[in-house]
Amino acid sequence: MKKPISALKRFLEEGSEPLDIEMQSELDYTPAPEEARRGENHPTEEPGHIKNRRTANVLYTVSSVVLCALMIFILVYNVSGLPSFGGADTLIDSEVGRFYIENGLEDTGATNIITPIILSYRGFDTLGESHVLFIALCSVMLLLRFAPQDASSALRAYAIEEDEPQDDDILKGFGHVLLPLVFVFGLYIIFNGNLSPGGGFSGGAVLGAGFIMYLVIYGHDAAYKFFNYKTMKLVSMTALVSYSLFKGYHFITGYNGWESVFSNGTVGTIFSGGMLLYLNVFVGAVVSVTMYTLFVLFRRGDF
Amino acid sequence: MEKVNALLLIFIIVCAVSVSLTKNLLSALIIFMSQSLAMSVVWILLRAPDLGITEAAVGAGVTSLLMFAALKKLHQVRSASNEKTDKRA
């Protein structure tokens, strides 16, 4: 949708311009200063060139509209072939989905079936995703971090923007009310990942947004006290390594059919679902730390 | 519920088109945020609350914040002090 409209707009705005110049120069031999400059730049410009450019414009517009319409048609055609939403026969030819629904609760002891799919059945994928997030953070640090590890106060003072609100009463009033709610909600999503909708990634994102809010309201110096480069390194490294260790233990015991230390527990309590709770906590830690660090790096290049 | 769903979907399409047509980057970003917010409600109506929470936190929250920070670095957001100096000049 994006291309044809902007191209059409540009064509409507600019497409008629060469024609005007042509007509004007035929009628009137004292061109405006802007046109005179153009004439100096292209002294040998002839109507033939203008005609070519116009036909190219029309061709470009038509072909982009046709291509976009074709793309939309293909996508809509494919979507119309999907099974209907919530229909009774939706799962008939989906063996994997049916397996999860029938055996998920028995296998993992988690009432929210999404979390064991993400962290247990497809745990290897989530391990890779956490590392992808970490690698993205590393590359952002390589690109945007301008200060060495021991950021001196002079450098940090240089980076602070002058026009940012400092000690703003309205912001602080909102922060006093909203921040505890945001943090509690994020922790709730993480810890209840095996019982109710949510889990490590969404809870971590909420927590990270809360950290960002804290930084914006109370300023860099307040945030630096509890969150600096060392904290980031410690938290994300510990979480990633422990996730890998827990997952490796899970794979080894599962493959050999050994009894795991993490039992399924009573279904419906927080400490049910085996190691899902711990995995959720690790993923949440990585995600929240990454979100906060990305924002800080974007904002001023260091903690 | 069907009507609410249809309204939200129309709103999302209008937002997606107007983001690409808006010249001002700041307004485009705010339209993008509202599109994400409507999308999160649509996820919840489609009975995918997991995705709804994630979309609201990441799509409407953190992504837009990162883009705001980037716009600020590019000096595309006109701040109060800048306006004052403009008026003086």
Task: Indicate the topology.
The complex is a heterodimer of chains A (303) and B (89).
Chain A: H1 2-14, H2 17-27, H3 33-41, H4 47-80, H5 95-108, H6 114-121, H7 123-144, H8 153-159, H9 169-191, H10 200-226, H11 229-256, H12 276-300
Helix pairs in contact in A: 1-4, 6-7, 7-11, 7-12, 9-10, 10-12, 11-12
Chain B: H1 2-21, H2 25-45, H3 49-73, H4 80-88
Structural commentary:
- The complex is a heterodimer of chains A (303) and B (89).
- By secondary structure, chain A is mainly α.
- Chain A has helices at 2-14, 17-27, 33-41, 47-80, 95-108, 114-121, 123-144, 153-159, 169-191, 200-226, 229-256, 276-300.
- Chain A has 2 domains: 2-80, no CATH class; 112-300, no CATH class.
- The model of chain A is unreliable at 15-28 (pLDDT under 50).
- By secondary structure, chain B is mainly alpha-helical.
- Chain B is built from 4 helices and no strands.
- Chain B has helices at residues 2-21, 25-45, 49-73, 80-88.
- The longest helix of chain B is centred in the last third of the chain and has 25 residues, at 49-73.
- The interface between A and B is medium-sized, with 28 and 25 residues.
